[in-house]
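Structure ticket #2291
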Amino acid sequence: MDLKILAAQFPVSLSIQKNIEVISEILEQSQSGELVVFPEGSVSGYSTDISFLDKIDLNELEAGLKFLQKEAQRRDIYLWVGACIKENGNWINAAFGFMPNGDSYIYKKINLAHHERNIIVAGKELPVFQIETKEGTVSIGIQLCRELRYPEQWGWLSRSGSQIILHLNNAVGNDKYQSVWKSHLVSRAAETQRFVISANNAGSQQLCPTMIIAPDGKVVGEIVSDKKAMLRATLDLSLVSNWYLNQCREDVVLIKASNDKNLAT
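Resolution: structure written out below.
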């Protein structure tokens, strides 16, 4: 089974209207049936100065997300964007998935950056989303930004059936460790034998490229740029494998679900 992918980056601003405009420009170039991925905070904006949350117009944000949900239906695409939203009075950092049939999904970041803590509420689940395409069902896991440093989360998503792991990223301003972050993503793909699609904010000194990585760890494509740009690829999902996962020494190390009842096998 093949799946078309479009990973897009652009300079994410703190203006919801401007972000929606740029996302719309990119979507003009999308193709029917594509899975399209944008960076963390791509709708709401994002900053390490957490006071940016105080400036978010929640009504404008809700309208923007609804617009993108309709765009996914109109364009027949599987669209994933990032946004910080308020839910029951609490801020959450989330990835939203909008499907061609009108369905929507949400992943709430479980491993928050230090500047997010005490302000944003962490998620408590690592869901695997079952996406119905014309070619068949595709299983997708989501991770956000610094969560690339926690291989146990990626291993859990893979053991739970993910074929593709989307990484919505917003890491700019210091490229000193760019090779380290890139290596993390390559390792996450190779050790789980999953496709990894990472879309980063476009900015000077990107901490991590925008990347598409195959299950063998080979980089299919990457972008290092402060400009709007896109990566396209067709993924052969038959390359996804449990070869290495099935060789784990579960008699020595075993990942358990939080309720201690279900095992990741």
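Closing remark: The chain has four helices and twelve strands.
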